[in-house]
Amino acid sequence: MKLLEKIIYADVLMMVMVIWVVPMCYGHGDQTGSDWNDARATFYGDINGGETQQGACGYGDLNKQGYGLETAALSTALFNNGSTCGACYEIKCVNSPQWCLPGIIRITATNFCPPNYDKTTDVWCNPPQKHFDLSQPMFLKIAKYKSGVVPVKYRRVPCVKTGGVKFETKGNPHFLMVLPYNVGGAGDVRAVQVKGTKTAWIPMKKNWGQNWNTGVVLTGQCLSFRLTLSDGITKDFINVTTPSWSCGQTFDGRINF
C-alpha cells in the first residue's frame, strides 16, 4: 500500500511541475509574437514611396530587394543603433476613432527616424518615445491622411520573406563589406561570419546599419556566410559566391530562416 501511495504522489508532483514550468518556458525568450505595446505613427515620402528608399539600414532599392512599400523608419528608442534593421512588426491604429481605420499592417524596419533636439513639441522620434515613421501608402491603410500622427499598438512578428537570403558584396578586395537582406525569421541580424574555401570561419564587424565587413583578403575563393539573428538562431549559407566574385554583386543564399 505504501508503494502505491508513493507512485500516486510522484505522479501528482510531476503534473504540478508541468503546469508550473510550461507557462514559464513559453513566456520568455522569443521576441516575436509578443504582446501589443504603445507607440505613435506618422508617415514620410510620397504616395509612391519616394524618399523611403535606401536609408540608415544600408538597404538600397527596396522594391528590388523585396521590401516594397511595407517599411518604416524607427525612432531612436526602437532603432537600437541599427541592430533592429530587418525586424518585422504588426501595427494597428488605436484610441482615435476620428482618424483610425480598421486593420493591421505588417512592416519591415528599413530606416531611422532621427531625433530633433531643437524642437520641444511634435518631435515624435526623440527618445524615449517609440515611434514608427511609415511609408505613406502603409500609413493610409490604418489612418486618414489629415491625421498626421496617430497612436498605435505594435508588436514584433516573424518576418516572412520569399526566396533565399541575399548577400550584396561591397567595398574592395582588401575590405570586403556584405549586406545581408531579405532575411526571414526574426529578421534582424546580430552576428555575421564569413568563410573562404581556404579559411576557417572569420567574424565580421558591423560597419553601419546591416553592413558587415572584414579586412581579410578572400579573393579567388568561394564565400560562405554564417548569420545569427536576434533570437539566437544561426544558419550557414555554404558556397554562396563563385571564386570569381567581385564587389557590387548580389548572391542568393538559396535558403532562409
TrEMBL record:
Transmembrane region(s): 7-29
GO biological process: anatomical structure morphogenesis; plant-type cell wall organization
Cellular component GO terms, alphabetical: extracellular region; membrane
Residue intervals of the Expansin-like CBD domain: 174-253
Lipid bilayer topology: Peripheral membrane protein
Annotated InterPro entries: Expan_Lol_pI, Expansin, Expansin/allergen_DPBB_dom, Expansin_CBD, Expansin_CBD_sf, RlpA-like_DPBB, RlpA-like_sf
Domain Expansin-like EG45: 54-164
Keywords: Cell wall, Cell wall biogenesis/degradation, Membrane, Secreted, Signal, Transmembrane, Transmembrane helix
Compartments it resides in: Secreted, Cell wall; Membrane
Record-linked SMART domains: DPBB_1
Entry-linked Pfam families: DPBB_1, Expansin_C
Function: Causes loosening and extension of plant cell walls by disrupting non-covalent bonding between cellulose microfibrils and matrix glucans. No enzymatic activity has been found.
UniProt family annotation: Belongs to the expansin family. Expansin A subfamily.
PANTHER family (UniProt xref): EXPANSIN-A15
Protein name: Expansin
Naturally occurring in which organism (per UniProt): Arabis nemorensis
